[in-house]
Amino acid sequence: MALVCMQYLGLVDERQRVQSKRSDPMFLDSKKYVAAFPFNVGRIPDWITFEEAVTLGVSSVAAAGAIFEGLSIPRPMISWVGVSRSNEPFINENQPWLLVWGGSCVTGIMTIQLAKLSGFRVFAVAGMQNASYLKGLGADKVLDRHQPEEAIAEAKKCDINLGIDCVGQETATHAVRALQPRAKLVYLVKEPDRAVAEQSQVEAIDVLVKRFHEDATYGQSLMDYISHCLFNKLIRPVRHEIVHGGFEAVQSGLERLKDRKVSGRKLVISVDRKV
Asked: Whole-model pTM?
């Protein structure tokens, strides 16, 4: 059985069973095994490759946590049977807007998809080279992250009351300015400038992703919902780029991320499965 767990993916080896009282996963052997709690893993449908599935871990958990826990948006009740994602755009002018600042990062990409399933129109701020890709995933508007004042002005016209920032303090501060008074913003990296948030009358909310590991009921319910969406093709994996070289290539990949040379896709380190 193939499983995905956070940033790792592989096959279940039932011969390896470890009892632990720790609240986080353990490494049995970094070259062969990763231990994980059952409520932190999920099955991979046949239509998704290993390389695609590894893009889903942290991004889907963080996005779901931001939407369903941080913003208290109810999860949609979707039948497990006979459901498929429509490729045809459908916009209801009465649907509320959700602001996603950092729409082309991996968490932003998952947030867009989950927000659409929850009945929102999505206002994304991202690199414009990814605009077509994000609109194909459900974003209704994509504004240029390099023009934050224009994005803020356009967002104001949409009367947006809910937002999620996936980037950092500067963009979270832009986001609170883009929202309406008494709105809510979930920040996944760093909180916005408090003075600006107070002046904008926007509530800034932090989401503890570690709850996924510590709360078995919460973790299992999140994995069940994400698996549900995957098996019914309601969400898609993030675009990815294979980085060859095994563990030795990790540092160069991190440098590319630090230098912001990666956008609209996830780097996937290729590791020899025979190890």
From this structure: 0.82
